[in-house]
Amino acid sequence: MSKTLHHGLLVLELLSENPKGLSTTEIAEGVGLHRTVAHRLVRTLEAHHLCRRDEFKRILPATGLVSLAEPVERDLRALARPVLEHLADATRATTHLVVREDESEVRALLVVEPREAKVHVSFRPGQTHPVDAGSAGLALLASAPPLDGERPEVAEARRQGYAVTDGEVIPAVIGVSAAVPTRRGRSTTSVGVSVFELPDAAQLGRTVTEAAAELADRLR
Q: Which CATH class is domain 3-62?
């Protein structure tokens, strides 16, 4: 294994977990490197537009990561579509794949509408909303360790394995979402459904959680 590449990837992972930026010293301490080595790694990543410096000289993720992520998102959509189609048919509800855009927002990457429902929710992929509103965002927050001041609904989602919200993203629409499990614990992707009525939240929650687990298996 290449130590230099390994350390460079650790820097990128560290930056992704700290989108408000880090100093070179903080990066060196976070990765366990001498500051001079960390400085050289950052300069190399900057040259490839994978990180940048803000006006305070703090180092942040940069736009080059978006170009690298685009093929991954295409692959994620391809793998997720059959899972969401099966979930939509099983629940007769609109299903969605949501990804964490940054620390404050999530984005609907894929939306699948049911084929045999008389009435269903309709919205377009690409829409964003705050991470702390809506079942998708709360499910993603629940995949991370507890934080001071977090919504009680996040703790509840962490306990039961899925999040439920009512009218937080679309008025009169109930969302039920589960984070796609990862080996690292914290997830950046969720699977969910949007419905007008929720006669059995526990059953629908289990169904959504099973779909999220299936997608996790496909991604391995």
A: mainly alpha
C-alpha span between 199 and 12 (Å, rounded): 44
Check residue 94 and give its pLDDT.
93
Topology (CATH level 3) of domain 67-219: Beta-Lactamase (3.30.450)
Task: Please check whether residue 165 is in contact with residue 133, taking contact to mean a CB–CB distance below 8 angstroms.
Answer: yes
> Following CA atoms 146, 199, 204, 154 in sequence, which dihedral angle do they give, to the nearest 10 degrees?
-10
Tokens 């391995």 found at: 220
The tens digit of pLDDT for each residue in 134-188 reads: 999 999 999 999 989 899 999 999 999 999 999 999 899 999 999 999 887 789 9
Q: Which residue type is seen at 155?
A: A
The sign of the CA dihedral 157, 121, 199, 210 is negative
Quote the pTM value: 0.71
Q: CA 57 to CA 145: how far, in whole Å?
A: 29
